[in-house]
Amino acid sequence: MLGMCRGRRKFLAASLALLFIPALTWLYLSVGSFQVKPLPLSPLEAQSSTPVGGAGERQALELRVRAVEEENRALRRELSRPPRSPSARLPSGGHRGNQNRTHSEEGTGDNEGQKAAAVGNSSDCVHQPAVDKCETIHVAIVCAGYNASRDVVTLVKSVLFHRRNPLHFHFITDSIAQQILSSLFHTWMVPAVRVDFYDADELKSEVSWIPNKHYSGIYGLMKLVLTKTLPSDLQRVIVLDTDITFATDIAELWAVFHKFKGQQVLGLVENQSDWYLGNLWKNHRPWPALGRGFNTGVILLLLDRLRKLRWEQMWRLTAERELMSMLSTSLADQDIFNAVIKQNPFLVHQLPCFWNVQLSDHTRSEKCYKDVSDLKVIHWNSPKKLRVKNKHVEFFRNLYLTFLEYDGNLLRRELFGCPSEADHNSENLQKTLSELDEDDPCYEFRRERFTVHRTHLYFLHYEYEPSSDSTDVTLVAQLSMDRLQMLEAICKHWEGPISLALYLSDAEAQQFLRYAQGSEVLMSRGNVGYHIVYKEGQFYPVNLLRNVAMRQVNTPYMFLSDIDFLPMYGLYEYLRYHVWTKGHAPTNFAKWRTATTPYRVQWEADFEPYVMVRRDSPEYDRRFVGFGWNKVAHIMELDAQEYEFVVLPNAYMIHMPHAPSFDITKFRSNKQYRVCLKTLKEEFQQNMSRRYGFAALKYMTAENNS
């Protein structure tokens, strides 16, 4: 095995070929009513008299895609029309037909809930003024940790899919979620979407005095302090839990602000369980609430009015008073919101039930979706999430899976006619791409170098602190779906930290998640960082993947490997405690077999060892994609920067056999592929000559003689 250095330590191994498999993403979104246009999602009709879904397997949904997309387009055309004059009021509980859908509300279908609602609220169906085409909709979300950062992406996808307005997301996050989501949105590059982050750690002191039994922990209380956290000039905001799925344009919900009257400052849906009635079990004693209470998974906040009403003082005094007898909250912020509303019912504007269909084990949500013609927001407000007990759960699960596996790249669509803030990254990218010659036979190769791939760092929980002796090392590798089976073997052979970049589609990312969660070996390891780089384009971006994995290394050293090379048992400890001089190079295997001490080797043409280097070593050159020269160029760069190559005598890796990758097949069968690779090699060598001068001549000479 090989180490290398320039007053630094480094290390060796061998080569990899990877295959990426095209994935088909299914779309099966309902636009019409359940009764008129059922979707073939699950055999629910046989289970219930409520016609919530049709029969058929998911494969049959492919036949529905075009029809559903046409319905979506028709809906958008309808919503884009100028607002009509307000129509006549319907009787309480009446409903509009889908042909006249605008930003209006429908009846809740729950007379009992209406009786318990706050004074002055009417659920009559009145035509609402349309939201201005270019009006920005503000959305606030509290998100902390690895799992919530993964879950919130599905919510964001569902919002982006239906939206027709600019969006401004306000994320209240811990450091983990901010790192993940800032990288995700930066690489997602969705037009007319702005994202701001607020440090949740700075807010902990505001709510840490409140004992909370809810699984959300201290972060479940932070919606209480949004009036203080969000910008003082922000007047209104929609607040969402991370386990929400939208089935309609969020502008419809934003338009409900126009219905607020008097001192109404909170828009909420009635709680759809018996929790606040106190009859779920013997001695059940919930916090005080108005009737069934309200669920805070979806909230409309009039921030300017709340500040004038001294909301901070209001909720604090209420919480202090109730905690004297209740001792702790059971449902986090929801308990305190309801206690405040109990004392001040004029604050709340009751939203129709379809704005928060709550799927908990004790839900009464069926009373809602039986009586309304359309569902707008699904809320998985149970710790069991998709495993919740509900006889129609398969329908709702399929709706959720639509966005879970939906190709997020398709959501990068422009909002034409709306001016947007200048995005310098996007502008620079477009300028760079416009300078490429589209008639160049190697255009696609050159373009790939500048493609921005959506990236989700730390897709699974990660927990590792490097050792304090400054010798720790992280194994770095990249893979696609066809190499997934090699993960367990590598984890068994390498007990140290690992940083992996996985090239997957959205659907494959969910397959990987299920695979990892079902593996005892992978779930027993908290020191493996899985970073998803989403598929885009026709090439396997091997060096981009390596760079993504390298950037997440937090140890002093990294061992640059490939997924089809199996480290020998004990290699991690050997690399940590072996003392080298500087080093890495072309391995003399005859000498290695009998060597007892490290020895130096010199760079040679086409040399591509696997190396151990310091964390601050150069990244891989992104111009090389697919098969050919992706590692060779990196080793050449290290040599040019005067890294020395040192072979370690008692370290080795084993190459695990595998089928040829798709990129190797293209290289062998496609002459233009080989021509372009040769062109890129020559351009790389010319760049080396310009950067390193006379010292780089040996690379061109060696190439000509090889």
TrEMBL record:
CDD domains xrefs: GT8_LARGE_C
Region described as Disordered: 74-120
Keyword Transport appears in the UniProt entry: no
Any Pfam family hit: Glyco_transf_49
Annotated keywords: Glycoprotein, Golgi apparatus, Membrane, Multifunctional enzyme, Signal-anchor, Transmembrane, Transmembrane helix
Record localization: Golgi apparatus membrane
Topology term for the membrane: Single-pass type II membrane protein
Primary location group: Golgi
InterPro entries, per the entry: Glyco_trans_8 (IPR002495), Nucleotide-diphossugar_trans (IPR029044), Xyl/GlcA_transferase (IPR051292)
Gene3D superfamilies recorded: Spore Coat Polysaccharide Biosynthesis Protein SpsA, Chain A
GO biological process: protein O-linked glycosylation via mannose
GO cellular component assignments: Golgi membrane
Domain of life where this protein originates: Eukaryota
GO molecular function, one term: xylosyltransferase activity
Catalytic reactions of this protein: 3-O-[beta-D-GlcA-(1->3)-beta-D-Xyl-(1->4)-Rib-ol-P-Rib-ol-P-3-beta-D-GalNAc-(1->3)-beta-D-GlcNAc-(1->4)-(O-6-P-alpha-D-Man)]-Thr-[protein] + UDP-alpha-D-xylose = 3-O-[alpha-D-Xyl-(1->3)-beta-D-GlcA-(1->4)-beta-D-Xyl-(1->4)-Rib-ol-P-Rib-ol-P-3-beta-D-GalNAc-(1->3)-beta-D-GlcNAc-(1->4)-(O-6-P-alpha-D-Man)]-Thr-[protein] + UDP + H(+); 3-O-{beta-D-GlcA-(1->[3)-alpha-D-Xyl-(1->3)-beta-D-GlcA-(1->](n)-4)-beta-D-Xyl-(1->4)-Rib-ol-P-Rib-ol-P-3-beta-D-GalNAc-(1->3)-beta-D-GlcNAc-(1->4)-O-6-P-alpha-D-Man}-L-Thr-[protein] + UDP-alpha-D-xylose = 3-O-{(1->[3)-alpha-D-Xyl-(1->3)-beta-D-GlcA-(1->](n+1)-4)-beta-D-Xyl-(1->4)-Rib-ol-P-Rib-ol-P-3-beta-D-GalNAc-(1->3)-beta-D-GlcNAc-(1->4)-O-6-P-alpha-D-Man}-L-Thr-[protein] + UDP + H(+); 3-O-{(1->[3)-alpha-D-Xyl-(1->3)-beta-D-GlcA-(1->](n)-4)-beta-D-Xyl-(1->4)-Rib-ol-P-Rib-ol-P-3-beta-D-GalNAc-(1->3)-beta-D-GlcNAc-(1->4)-O-6-P-alpha-D-Man}-L-Thr-[protein] + UDP-alpha-D-glucuronate = 3-O-{beta-D-GlcA-(1->[3)-alpha-D-Xyl-(1->3)-beta-D-GlcA-(1->](n)-4)-beta-D-Xyl-(1->4)-Rib-ol-P-Rib-ol-P-3-beta-D-GalNAc-(1->3)-beta-D-GlcNAc-(1->4)-O-6-P-alpha-D-Man}-L-Thr-[protein] + UDP + H(+)
Similarity section: In the C-terminal section; belongs to the glycosyltransferase 49 family.
Protein name (database record): Glycosyltransferase-like protein LARGE1
Organism: Dicentrarchus labrax (European seabass)
